[in-house]
Amino acid sequence: MKHLDEYRDEALTRRLLDELTATVTRPWRLMEVCGGQTHSIMKTGLHDLLPPQIELVHGPGCPVCVTPLELIDKAIALASRPDVIFTSYGDMLRVPGSGRDLFSVKAAGGDVRIVYSPLDALKIARDNPAKTVVFFAIGFETTAPANAMAVVQAKAQGIDNFAVLVSHVTVPPVIAGLMQESGVQVDAFLAAGHVCAVMGYWEYGPLAEQYRIPIVVTGFEPVDLLRGILMAVRQLEQGRHEVENAYERSVTYEGNQPAQAIIQRAFELCDRKWRGIGTIPMSGYRLRAEYAALDAEQRFPDVGAIQTAESSLCISGLILQGRKKPFECPAFGKECTPQTPLGATMVSSEGACAAYYRYGRYRDAIAEAEKKSS
Amino acid sequence: MSTPDQPNFSGWMCPLPLRNYPTIVMGHGSGGKMMSDLIGHLFAPALGNDLLGQMADSTVLPLADGSRLAFSTDSFVISPLVFPGGDIGELAVYGTVNDIAMSGAKPLFLSAGFILEEGLPMDLLGQLVESFGRACRTAGVQLVAGDTKVVNRGHGDGLYINTSGIGLIPPGVQIGPDRARPGDAVLVSGTLGDHGMAIMSVREGLAFESPIVSDSAPLNGMVDAMLAVTTEIHCLRDATRGGLAAVLNELAVASRVGVEFDERKVPVQPAVQAACEMLGLDPLYVANEGKLVAFVPEAHAEAVLDAMHANPYGTNAARIGTVVETHPGLVVARTGIGGSRVVDLPAGELLPRIC
Q1: CATH architecture of the domain formed by B185-342
Q2: What percent of chain A has pLDDT over 90?
Q3: A103 chain-B contacts, CB cut-off 8 A
Q4: FRET partner for B6 with CA separation of 20 to 30 A, picked from A195, B25, B142, B198?
Q5: Residues A340 and A226 in one domain
Q6: What is the rounded distance in angstroms from the CA atom of residue A173 to the CA atom of residue A269?
Q7: Mean per-residue pLDDT for B29-47?
Q8: Cβ of A9 and B12 within 8 Å?
């Protein structure tokens, strides 16, 4: 497929890997921020082709993994109401709240529908005037413009049976938070290309400067990822700490200004809870006051009042920070498998533990076979 | 140390998800792990026996005179009833015909149960029954027993069809999920993911530049042609729910072998690939209704592949990989950039990814 195949080319991948091998002189630990990047790395097996000095740590950019338990509980409460049609991106349905997930709510008679865009949810609202249609507005800066657009359109068109449950988070505050945390060992960040396509990368300069860390805007195909890694490693080897763009075909410094404008119009910055971490100051979006009527938490005050504390049985927090590897968790592969996950890193198909679990079984089998044959 | 009002990055965790759903959810019907668990933990303990334990697309029933029947049943609950490239009528015939053919049997007789929902338009039912009849003639099977029930409006999706079928296995044919051997060639009969993406595109109202059409087709003719080359075919499976990934995993586990294949050799139509890219789905996991996977000894691989190519439903057949001794029970793909990854069973429902 044009515009994809050339970024999945084996010969080009090989050339970049050779260049990387020639550049790297010592161990470096890079964090890819976005879950989509982790998915691509695992799907192509890129992590296994890198020079041994380079370690990739899987970052916090999977919206499914970071949406707090409390918001999932609110979603479940809304979806359970007979007067609500609850609409969501598909992969949120599998994420468990305190007691159950949205699949269970659907099985119990809740009207839960997968949509591909918040504008689809708006259409469902138009078609079902007797119900309140709630859209689960989650994600990073990437999904925010479309969600903002739905809110603005709903108000402009007077669709008063539409509301959003907002749990938007943003990337720069969590990078800052990670760097402030003692014990986090990350030498460079691969910033999320899609987020930067919307926001540009003007926000990252102060972070690179303050924490003296390279930040490279990076895409999602293997060739894109390798270019990002190579540029980050060059900076590290040369002792630089700058913001660079390895995803020029999609990202400009300023970003997509109409998209930023629509975010600004519907949303304002606020403190946000992150799953398991707690509240990070000014790390997300909420609806502006003029759109309060579209806020599902205000429309249904009993839902808005739900408070849930996070419980903790696994070490996915430490794994997501790169401080522990999945196999260092006592539950890994025993109590905790992709079928019976204990944590977000195992529940999500692109989560670090799930990937290690699958890959680890393969490596173990190969090692076993080699032992037998020797 | 973090104080309570500071973010605590060490606490980056999530709560215990449900281990077992207390009710049936849609994922139990997806052809992945949840369904396999449901069968293994609930159905098999209550109903299991040696014949059911074959766990093949159709069960081989040995008769006293030495002949062998293949028997299978399947229910069709698809929405919409008519879709690009087919309808529920022909699907109900081909689905069971293909299951029988995967034992190497010649499908002969079908039964059908039609569960009709109050309000189903008579002319639509007529059209679907006509299609069922045409499909029987195309596949060379006879409908010999039938049943009709009507349920209240709201209790069915217009029309559900269950079909069962029997076929006769030719002497010398020994096909089974546990018969794969290291060195076998892994063949697929054509492009993957067409049916699943055709259904998804109409169900979700997704428009693509070129319409994606279901591959719904009878495969018994192709199986005949393959067996005419050699009766030494080890495994056959039609890659329906769960797609190629589910089939390869099931065969690897049942035969205690590993499977390695080259992702670049897996035939996928550009429109299907594009639709999957857009939705964040993997064509390896998407359903097919007219594609089979064959494990064939290396010595016969080329000739069997030629026979597949000569069949109208096998023009895009390809050899994608090999059965190996190492990593038994695991399916490993060589990726486009020369890496490798484990291709696991799908968990539950295929869900479009958000990022």
Answers
A1: Alpha-Beta Complex (3.90)
A2: 62
A3: 21, 25-27, 348-349
A4: A195
A5: no
A6: 11
A7: 85
A8: no
Kindly list the residues from chain B whose CB atom is less than 8 angstroms away from the CB atom of residue A100. Answer: 18
Is 90 exceeded by the pLDDT of residue B204? no
ipTM of the complex: 0.82
Q: Quick one: how many helices (H) and strands (E) in chain A?
A: 17, 11
- Listed in sequence order, the residues at least 6 apart from A314 whose beta carbon sits closer than 8 Å to its beta carbon are A329, A331, A336, A342, A343, A345, A346, B13, B14
Are A151 and A28 part of one and the same domain?
A: yes
pLDDT above 70 (res A349) = no
What confidence tier does B3 reach under pLDDT thresholds 50, 70, 90?
Answer: very low
Q: What is the pLDDT of residues A272-303, one digit of tens each?
A: 988 767 788 999 999 999 999 999 999 999 99
Which residues in chain A (317-356) have CB-CB distances under 8 A to chain B?
317-318, 320-321, 323, 338-344, 347, 349-350
Q: Is B34 in a helix, a strand, or coil? A: helix
Q: Is the pLDDT of residue A353 over 70?
A: no
Residue A324: which domain range? 320-373
The residue among A315 and B38 whose pLDDT is bigger is B38
Question: With contacts defined as CB-CB under 8 Å, which chain A residues touch B283?
Answer: none
Stretch 298-317 of chain A: residues touching chain B, C-beta under 8 Å: 310-317
B234-257: average pLDDT: 95
Residue found under tokens 């890193």:
A345
The domain tally of chain A equals: 2
Interface test with B, best of A89, A98, A105, A321 (most B CBs within 10 A): A89
Higher model confidence: residue A311 or residue A5? A5
Mean pLDDT of all residues in B141-156:
96
Between chains, do B351 and A139 touch, taking CB under 8 Å as contact? Answer: no
pTM of the model: 0.87
CB-based contacts of A168, cutoff 8 Å, min separation 6 = A137, A138, A139, A140, A143, A144, A147, A267, A272, A284, A285, A286
User: Hey, is the C-beta of A185 within 8 angstroms of any chain B C-beta?
Assistant: no
* Residue bearing the bigger pLDDT, A331 or A49: A49
Judged against a pLDDT cut of 70, whether residue A325 lies above it is answered with no
Question: What is the residue extent of each domain of chain B?
Answer: 58-169, 185-342
> Residue A30 is encoded by which pair of tokens?
């890079």
Mutate to test the interface with B, among A34, A116, A175 (most CBs of B within 10 A): A116
Nearest to A48 among B258, B340, B351 (CB): B340
Last-in-domain residue among A287, A311, A335: A311
A260 shares a domain with A328: no
Q: Are residues A361 and A297 part of one domain?
A: no
Q: Kindly tell me if the per-residue pLDDT of A312 is higher than 60.
A: no
Q: To 10 degrees, what angle do helices A35-44 and A222-238 make?
A: 110
Residue A112 tokens, joined: 């839960």
Residue A306 sits in the same domain as residue A339: no
CATH number at residue A178: 3.40.50.11740
A83 and A205 housed in the same domain: yes
Region B329-348: what's the mean pLDDT?
A: 87
What is the spatial distance between Cα B125 and Cα B16, in angstroms, rounded to a whole number?
A: 47
| A340, A343, A346, A347: CA torsion to nearest 10 | 70
Sign of CA dihedral A46, A50, A52, A53: negative
Structure tokens, A343 = 């944590």
The matching CATH number, chosen from 3.30.1330.10, 3.40.50.720, 3.20.20.150, 2.60.120.600, for B58-169 is: 3.30.1330.10
Looking at the fold, whether A234 and A326 belong to one and the same domain comes out as no
Say whether both A356 and A286 belong to one domain.
no
Q: Which candidate from B11, B15, B25 shows the least CB-CB separation from A278?
A: B11
